Amino acid sequence: MVINDRNRISAIEALRGIAVITVVLYHYSWFIHPLESTFLRRGYIGVDIFFIISGFLACHNTARYDSSSYNSIKYITNRLIRICPAYIIVTLLYVGTNYTLHSTSTGAWALIKSLLFLPQLSEGGPSYGSPVVDVGWTLNYEFFFT
């Protein structure tokens, strides 16, 4: 593993690139015939790669700290500060746009659960009930296992 001057692990960056490409091709394959019957439909493996990267980086980035309450709260707070603002903005824009363009309103409980990274529990895995912005199901897992 090579760690460059910006403290990035080059192998992780390469894996992240592979994961992005596989996920994009997977989603693309749903709309283009005859791609729906090709190996591209196995691109969901990119999500698994992202989860592995996330777990590795969580361990790697916190290895030098003890397991005190202070460090745990600091870690969780930093994650929330990095992820929540963008997720909240996207979710609220989605709800507003959906209401404006389609006159479809999102239930308050569904919105609250989405913003708190709680599954909707209306369907089975992997999403266990997608949040308002359905691709946010991965964040539910991220925060559950953090």
From TrEMBL:
Keywords for the protein's UniProt record, in alphabetical order: Membrane, Transmembrane, Transmembrane helix
RNA-binding listed as a keyword: no
Source taxon at top rank: Bacteria
Residue ranges occupied by any Acyltransferase domain in the UniProt entry: 10-145
GO annotation, biological process: polysaccharide biosynthetic process
InterPro entries tied to this protein: Acyl_transf_3_dom (IPR002656), Acyltransferase_3 (IPR050879)
A GO CC term assigned to this protein in UniProt: membrane
UniProt keyword Transmembrane helix, yes or no: yes
Positions in coiled-coil regions: none
Gene Ontology MF terms: acyltransferase activity, transferring groups other than amino-acyl groups
Transmembrane segments: 12-31, 43-59, 80-101
Record PANTHER family: ACETYLTRANSFERASE (PTHR23028), BLR2367 PROTEIN (PTHR23028:SF131)
Protein name per Swiss-Prot or TrEMBL: Acyltransferase 3 domain-containing protein
Organism expressing this protein natively: Rosenbergiella nectarea
